[in-house]
């Protein structure tokens, strides 16, 4: 059994970002075959300079943003141009923060939620059901920025400062099911403290943190969303301590505790939601001398895991059974190949890990390679032999192609140099498939992946297929589709 919740990162905005696509595949049509998109172009190639897929969820159809011509346009598509539908237009000011970055989608049931400024109401929460009439302002909370939020199976929660700005002003906890009628304020917080939503074991109970105005004290507490009763969990002291990732597994909430000290090690904690049951498991060594990157916390098999990042790739992996004595390092890189925020210049932040069957597969930078900034070692960990990492090989800038969540049988595919490879998590099952059509211009670069490829997102197809933005020499940044056979790689279009 595998559970994962990845922390959302607020990466630096790419000023020439022109397109964001969110793929949504409905769970109730998991057996449907997503059609191969027809041969069509995305607008005028002369107007496109750069594009990136922004985020992905499980559901259907696809929603995406297009911010050409100083307009922020919301679209949906099922991959066929005849079914493209323009849903709404919002103003853009390229010389200010006014819709200066593409809104992030939050999938909730059959709707998507997003924060945007329509030029009239300010920065507010909107929802769309995929129709023009169903794309509406959800609540007027008068915000200046996207607030702390948390999503459960049924609701989307967020905390809005009542004044619209300032971190320690009085605030309100809101809950919505994606409809205006189902949106309501459920709790109020006094001023003088900053609140952040951390996690939720189930609908009805939220884990919240609050920091004092001096930012030297952090308190975790649980909040019952029906009674608004609060229960203290634990208080931390330090240099602006904050929770930098969390994951519920078994009877514990596992979380990473960080602070503002760039050279202070982060810590891995777990709690049973009581003060007595809150314990530090590990002081995590710094993976990068200049830059703190949020870790990935997840569970795999019988254990919880802490995956530390160096800014680009995994650089450390720790495993725990929920006790300090049962917490151990499986891998710890000390190379420090990437410092600062150099990874933010990559067209696509590499996928950190993928689980296929009983195998956890992830790359780390090679410490002893003559091309240390380009080569990565690909590792595998079996849930049945959870204390033994297996080296699958060394590859040049591998890009893992995450499979669709409905695909449980295909091998993991990845691109490296000019080739596409596949692996089943064993050395014998790691082999080349052929030349990757989207990496024919690939060149080794000391600081970044020079190939202009955005983050690939999987479609629910047979054979496995991915949607990806690609910087084609002839057409510039366009939307492409590529499949595992390498026989169906072509440019798409979304007709306006």
Radius of gyration: 23 Å
* Structure classification: mainly beta
Instruction: Average the pLDDT over all residues and give the rounded result.
Output: 77
DSSP E strands, number: 38
Strand order of the largest sheet: 1-23-24-25-26
Percentage beta strand:
over 45%
Q: Pick out the low-confidence regions.
A: 1-59, 339-345
- Give the end-to-end Cα distance, rounded to a whole number of Å: 43 Å
Helix proportion: under 10%
Described by strand count, sense and barrel closure, the largest sheet is: 5 strands, antiparallel
Number of helices: 0
In one word, what is the shape? Answer: globular
Kindly list the characteristics that best describe this protein.
disordered N terminus; 496 residues; five-stranded antiparallel sheet; mainly beta; five-stranded mixed sheet; single chain; 47% strand
SSE layout and pairings?
Blueprint: E1 2-4, E2 19-23, E3 55-56, E4 62-66, E5 71-77, E6 85-91, E7 106-108, E8 111-117, E9 123-128, E10 135-143, E11 149-151, E12 156-161, E13 171-176, E14 183-189, E15 193-202, E16 205-212, E17 217-224, E18 230-237, E19 242-249, E20 252-258, E21 266-271, E22 278-284, E23 296-300, E24 303-309, E25 314-320, E26 327-332, E27 354-356, E28 359-365, E29 375-382, E30 385-396, E31 399-401, E32 412-416, E33 419-423, E34 431-435, E35 457-459, E36 465-472, E37 476-483, E38 490-491
Parallel strand pairs: 2-3
Antiparallel strand pairs: 1-23, 2-4, 4-5, 5-6, 7-8, 8-9, 9-10, 11-12, 12-13, 13-14, 15-16, 16-17, 17-18, 19-20, 20-21, 21-22, 23-24, 24-25, 25-26, 27-28, 28-29, 29-30, 31-32, 32-33, 33-34, 35-36, 36-37, 37-38
């Amino acid at each position: 059994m595998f559970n994962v919740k990845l922390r959302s990162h607020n990466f630096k905005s790419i000023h020439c970002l022109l397109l964001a696509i969110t793929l949504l595949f409905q769970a109730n049509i998991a057996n449907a075959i997503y059609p191969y998109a027809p041969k069509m172009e995305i607008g005028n190639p002369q107007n496109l300079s750069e594009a990136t897929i922004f985020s992905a969820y499980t559901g259907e159809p696809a929603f995406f943003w297009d911010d050409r011509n100083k307009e922020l346009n919301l679209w949906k598509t099922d991959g066929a141009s005849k079914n493209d539908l323009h849903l709404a237009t919002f103003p853009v000011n390229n010389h200010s923060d006014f819709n200066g970055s593409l809104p992030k989608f939050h999938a909730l049931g059959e709707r998507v939620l997003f924060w945007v400024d329509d030029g009239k109401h300010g920065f507010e929460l909107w929802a769309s059901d995929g129709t023009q009439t169903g794309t509406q302002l959800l609540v007027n909370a008068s915000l200046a920025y996207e607030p702390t939020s948390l999503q459960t199976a049924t609701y989307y929660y967020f905390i809005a400062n009542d004044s619209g700005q300032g971190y320690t002003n009085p605030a309100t906890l809101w809950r919505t099911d994606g409809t205006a009628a189902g949106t309501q304020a459920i709790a109020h917080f006094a001023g003088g403290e900053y609140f952040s939503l951390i996690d939720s074991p189930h609908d009805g109970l939220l884990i919240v943190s609050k920091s004092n105005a001096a930012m030297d004290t952090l308190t975790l507490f649980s909040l019952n969303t029906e009674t608004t009763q609060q229960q203290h969990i634990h208080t931390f002291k330090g240099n602006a301590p904050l929770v930098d990732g969390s994951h519920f597994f078994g009877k514990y909430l596992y979380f990473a505790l960080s602070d503002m000290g760039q050279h202070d090690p982060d810590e891995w904690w777990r709690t049973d939601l009581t003060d007595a049951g809150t314990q530090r498991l590990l002081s995590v060594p710094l993976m990068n001398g200049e830059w703190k990157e949020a870790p990935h916390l997840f569970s795999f098999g019988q254990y919880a895991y802490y995956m530390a990042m160096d800014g680009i790739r995994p650089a450390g992996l720790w495993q725990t059974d929920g006790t300090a004595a049962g917490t151990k390092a499986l891998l710890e890189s000390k190379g420090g190949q990437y410092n600062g925020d150099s990874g933010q210049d990559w067209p696509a932040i590499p996928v950190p890990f993928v689980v296929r069957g009983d195998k956890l597969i992830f790359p780390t930078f090679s410490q002893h390679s003559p091309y240390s900034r380009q080569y990565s070692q690909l590792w595998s960990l079996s849930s049945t032999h959870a204390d033994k990492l297996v080296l699958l090989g060394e590859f040049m800038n591998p890009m893992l192609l995450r499979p669709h969540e409905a695909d449980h049988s295909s091998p993991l595919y990845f691109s490296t140099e000019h080739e596409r490879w596949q692996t089943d998590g064993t050395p014998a099952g790691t082999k080349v498939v052929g030349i990757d059509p989207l990496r024919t211009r690939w060149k080794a670069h000391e600081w970044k992946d020079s190939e202009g490829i955005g983050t690939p997102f999987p479609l629910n197809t047979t054979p496995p297929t991915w949607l990806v933005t690609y910087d084609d020499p002839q057409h510039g940044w366009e939307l492409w589709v590529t499949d595992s056979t390498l026989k169906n790689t072509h440019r798409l279009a979304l007709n306006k």
